Amino acid sequence: MEELERIWQYLNDHGIYPEYVDRHADDILILVNRGDWKHQHLYCDYLLNELGYTTVSEYITDDDGSDCYSALHTYRMLK
Q: Given strand 20-24, what is the order of strands in its sheet?
């Protein structure tokens, strides 16, 4: 199974349903749309860490001041 498919499936298996999972150079990009800060965003970071990735950045794309927001997460494989 290709790495992006493996990540997508792993997230789905754990209740995270990103808008997309993509690769840019050495980074994995995951867009979480309207996710709760703890149950989707923080959990996504945890799950990617379980797969051997570290969080590089989180760019918030939509925020209305509630606990839910949209963000583009960037991860890189630990070497």
A: 20-24, 27-36, 68-77, 53-63
